[in-house]
Amino acid sequence: MKIGFIGLGNMGAPMARNLLKHGHTVQVFDLNEVAVRALVDAGASACASPKLAATDVELVVTMLPASAHVRTVLTDENGVLAGIAPGVTIVDSSTIDPASAQAFAKLAQAHGNPFVDAPVSGGTGGAAAGTLTFMVGASEAVYAQVKPVLEAMGKNIVHCGETGMGQVAKICNNLLLGITMAGVAEAMSLGTALGIDSKVLAGIINTSTGRCWSSDTYNPYPGIVETAPSARGYTGGFGTDLMLKDLGLAADAARSAKQPIFLGALAQQLYQAMSSSGRGGLDFSAIIKLYERGEHA
Ligand code: NAD
């Protein structure tokens, strides 16, 4: 398939590489020229705008930070909708609020283009390995059409319901992830402050009832998981500001549903404290720094 791919960040770049590896022809756009050059080296062709990236393709994929970026990329004068042919499907894998996804779907449909929300889970490791989970909001027919392409980038492709339901699933997952990461950071910090060896404690948690992805795959305590951002100074991975954005999406959605999220609200304030102290660019597992002695005095 010929695919236009827009947004080559921590997630988008490895996802686009996997499309190339599976034999798709990929044309790319990103504001960051270094990111574009790296994909061109891997076999993609570079485009000068989202409009050109969406021209003469059979599918468009976007992987952008937040709803405002998706709106710009879709609707700008040089945006996707200015270049895309009628009937070509747009898959947005960014994490955004369900209401925006539904609004973008209406906009796209007015141009004759199906729009699919397909946010992902699995982190940068999952993106590189092609093992992401895709949470897809689309009609049955459009889901069946995009599934084979998503399989080049992910292992679990799940149809969550109509447009917006992929984002609902993603927001709830990340609400829980933000809470579990803070919980693991708290437990690891307490244990080591009480004198237990960090590796012993992590080993116990990971074979006991406290085990979760935040403890066994992405442990925030340095030296536990070699491939986790905690092993490389909290660089790369999933930014604190992106987690803060997702907890904000959960808070907004909870308000509209009149549903309390007690722990989510507390977690949101913890990531806000990290961001406000200038650490929003670090991986979200850097939340453990809030527990360092003196930090909270
Ligand atoms: P990122 O900040 O690393 O990458 C975003 C990319 O979008 C950057 O390369 C940036 O230059 C580009 N961009 C921004 N505005 C643009 C525009 N107008 N036109 C073209 N390109 C533009 O973000 P990421 O970590 O790749 O995350 C992308 C999305 O995926 C976010 O919504 C995030 O919440 C979600 N997500 C991230 C992870 C993760 O582990 N990083 C996991 C699951 C989901």
What would you note in describing this structure?
- The protein is an alpha/beta fold and 297 residues long.
- The protein folds into 2 domains: 2-162, Rossmann fold; 168-291, N-(1-d-carboxylethyl)-l-norvaline Dehydrogenase, domain 2 (Orthogonal Bundle), CATH 1.10.1040.
- It contains 13 helices and 9 strands.
- Strands 3-2-1-4-5-6 form a 6-stranded parallel beta sheet. A 3-stranded mixed beta sheet has the order 7-8-9.
- α6 links the parallel β5 and β6.
- α9 (165-193) crosses α12 (240-257).
- The termini are far apart.
- The mean pLDDT is 97.
- The structure holds nicotinamide-adenine-dinucleotide.
- Nicotinamide-adenine-dinucleotide (NAD) binds next to α4, β7, α7 and α12.
Which key features would you list for this structure?
single chain; 297 residues; alpha/beta; Rossmann fold; N-(1-d-carboxylethyl)-l-norvaline Dehydrogenase, domain 2; 2 domains; six-stranded parallel β-sheet; three-stranded mixed β-sheet; 9 strands; 13% strand; binds nicotinamide-adenine-dinucleotide
Strand and helix layout:
Layout lengths: L1 E5 L5 H10 L3 E5 L3 H9 L3 E2 L3 H4 L5 E4 L4 H9 L4 H4 L5 E4 L5 H13 L4 E3 L2 E2 L1 H7 L2 E6 L2 H11 L3 E8 L3 H29 L4 H8 L7 H4 L23 H18 L4 H18 L18
The structure holds nicotinamide-adenine-dinucleotide.
